[in-house]
Amino acid sequence: MREEGGYTPRVTVIIPTYNEADAIEERLNNIYSQDYPREKLEIIVVDSASADGTPAVVEKWAEQHLDIKVLLIREEQRRGKANALNHALRYATGEVVAIADADALWAPEALRRAVAKLADPTVGAVSCVKRPLNGRGIEEGYRGFYNQLRVAESKLWSTPIFHGELAAFRREALEAVGGFPTDIGADDSYTATQIALRGLRAIVADDVLCTEAVPRRDYHAWRIRRAQHLIQHFAKAIRRLHKAPPPFRGVLAAEAYLHVVNPWLLAGAVAALAASAAAGSLPALAILALGAALLAYKPYRVWTAAQAYLITAAVKNLWTKELIWKKQKK
Ligand code: GDP
Ligand code: MN
Q: Which of 101, 105, 127, 229 to mutate to test ligand 1, by most ligand atoms within 8 A of the CB atom?
């Protein structure tokens, strides 16, 4: 892959905020101290009617940091993250647009490295490897495994799963796909996938690092909501599978299968075994007991939990898409 340290285009960093007064100052400092020419940076904070004073914190910060361009957009009504991102996009002037969730942090060289990947004209979008902050054991296990998968898929060609904690796009590519989708939750992943379907690579780079806050309470609800969004994304993206460039087709099909179909095989197998065991089958009981005992092994427990979140999410998707979600304490 061609990568150029000398490629330093104008970059617009978009921070979407809803009640992020506790996090926004550290986040702005984090972007300010990126190892990237400051005069090439522009920050757009798009706030959707926060009730905790987030905009005032941003205004004060901007007054104290006059050597970086900051634009604050205040929406009077909360219409969800994707709508807010599209709103901000209309004001973006950078050749590269990077989404930066407020509750995440970038490693100091993350932006420079992400932009360097975009020097390669075949790459259209770049995301980060995520490390959970204050994560529980299960989140650490889940992340460790899925980070490797994202990087491996990216080396094959592209990954269909992106992270709003750092998602950098060529602005032209972003505009060509019509911005962020407002009818599904995983705006970052869906947009990256659309770009890949149009022939530019969408990659998670293993040297682009970020951290994200994980809710201490409500961890399960958080995982279920994210699973809902991923299912919505794959259900929509799979319809354009035939358009996928060959190396991406297999990856997109496999991930859609793993998120939408596979969890139900586990549920079906457990149900069938439980029915047989209840009818007196000792082998069925033995397999169930073995399955339960295996839960002591962490990677298996992490995988099983992921299936349980996906099943719950699929059911919940029947009545709510969670496009505007409750802010969780992290
Ligand atoms: P999670 O990472 O999936 O738990 O989602 P978050 O709650 O952390 O949201 C991701 C980012 O989007 C954060 O910076 C939020 O403040 C922001 N966000 C969430 N909902 C909205 C919204 O309705 N409007 C705007 N402008 N930002 C939002
Ligand atoms: Mn978050």
A: 101
